[in-house]
Amino acid sequence: MLVFIVILLKININLASLIGVTFTGLIGLYGIGIAFSSLSLVFKDIKAIISLFKVGFIYLLFKQNENIFIPFSYAKGLIWDIILNEYKISDFPISSLSIVFLNSLVYFIIGLIMFNYFEKIAMKKGIQS
After folding, report:
1. Is 1 inside any structural domain?
2. Where are the transmembrane segments (predicted)?
3. Is residue 3 part of a domain?
4. Interior CA angle at 129 toward 48 and 43, to 5°?
5. Taking CA 108 as the corner, what is the angle to CA 105 and CA 109, rounded to the nearest 5 degrees?
6. How many domains does the structure of the chain reveal?
7. pTM of the complete model
8. Residue 83 and residue 11: Cα distance in Å, rounded?
């Protein structure tokens, strides 16, 4: 416990920047969750598929390089800079912040589109009323 207190005293984290970038990046992960839930509307047993994707996402999150096509990967790099290098959100260029926002927005929209598509299929099959 003492080590945790000493570490907190030495690190100066800007919480507003950390929370802002984290929540912006999480929007894309919500989109992926919506996409998987849309699959469960039609296919009732998707545990194996979700397990495979979960392992893949964990691998991709712990890779050091950032890729704008992987959800939360670019946001993870910005979060690391905020925590380790004590950056503020104003220290990042607008292009980096817009990449995080657009990446999250694209994955969220893809999740919503998939949900609407599979919901219509489930209604046609009579699985869902």
Report:
1. no
2. 15-39, 94-118
3. no
4. 15
5. 85
6. 1
7. 0.79
8. 8
| Cα–Cα dist 53/70, whole Å | 12
Query: SS3 for 46?
Result: coil
Residue 72 inside a domain? The answer is yes
4 within a domain of the structure (yes/no): no
Alpha-carbon span 71 to 45, nearest angstrom: 24
The yes-or-no verdict on residue 12 having pLDDT over 90 is: no
Output phi, psi for 51, to 5 deg.
Answer: -65, -40
Distance CA 43, CA 101 (A): 31
| Phi-psi category of residue 72: left, alpha or beta, with phi > 0 → left and psi -120 to 50 → alpha | left
Q: Are 71 and 32 in contact (CB under 8 A)?
A: yes
Question: Domain residues for 58?
Answer: 14-125
Inter-residue contact 16 to 22 (CB < 8 Å): no
**Per-residue pLDDT band at 34 (split at 50, 70, 90):** very high
The span from the CA of 71 to the CA of 27, in Å, is 9
